[in-house]
Design goal:
The protein is built from 5 helices and 8 strands, in the order βαββββαβαβααβ. It is an alpha+beta fold and 164 residues long. A hairpin with a 3-residue loop joins strand 3 and strand 4. It is globular and about 45 Å long. The protein starts with a strand and ends with a strand.
């Protein structure tokens, strides 16, 4: 099974100033080159977006120069594992973005975890755990930043060279 993990490092030039400020603040606070991470599984992107919460959308159009993309090869899930995985993803679709959680866990270092909302790296780590990616098993998803996800993925995955 192939998975693509995308790390966002920049915005398009026409984005509102407050999103650029928030992104720079997240990069500064997490000591990261990245402020956002998403995952693509079975031709679907799954990510936590600040305005819409958890969102599932088609893989294409895919590539943007504002992201770095890494591909992982993992063992295929059993039929039961695959069903459990997609049931979980569908239940999360549309849940809110955890603004409180991202600031409490990434900046103040409290062990906050919302029962009904997610931030980007939190949902990506949870999905990687459900996909049995060994390096993420045992991690607390709410304590992981996009940079920490990147540090694991860059060692395990293959960087995709994207033509713009």
């Amino acid at each position: 099974m192939k998975i693509i993990v995308a790390f966002q490092k920049d915005f398009d030039d026409d984005i509102e100033f407050y999103w650029k400020w928030a992104a720079d603040f997240i990069k500064w606070g997490t000591k990261s080159a990245y402020f956002h991470v998403e995952i693509a599984i079975d031709e679907k992107w799954v990510g936590a977006h600040t305005d819409q919460g958890i969102e599932i959308h088609d893989l294409k159009p895919l590539y943007s120069p504002q992201f770095d993309y890494y591909e992982l090869d993992i063992p295929e899930l059993t039929e039961t594992q695959n069903k459990i995985f997609w049931q979980f993803v569908e239940r999360q679709n549309g849940t809110g973005y955890d603004w409180i959680g991202i600031y409490l866990t990434q900046f103040i270092m409290l062990d906050w975890e919302s029962k009904s909302k997610w931030f980007c790296s939190e949902i990506v780590v949870k999905l990687l755990q459900l996909l049995y990616v060994e390096e993420f098993l045992g991690m607390k998803p709410n304590r992981i930043s996009p940079q920490q996800v990147f540090e694991v993925i860059k060692m395990k995955g293959t960087k995709l060279e994207i033509e713009n």
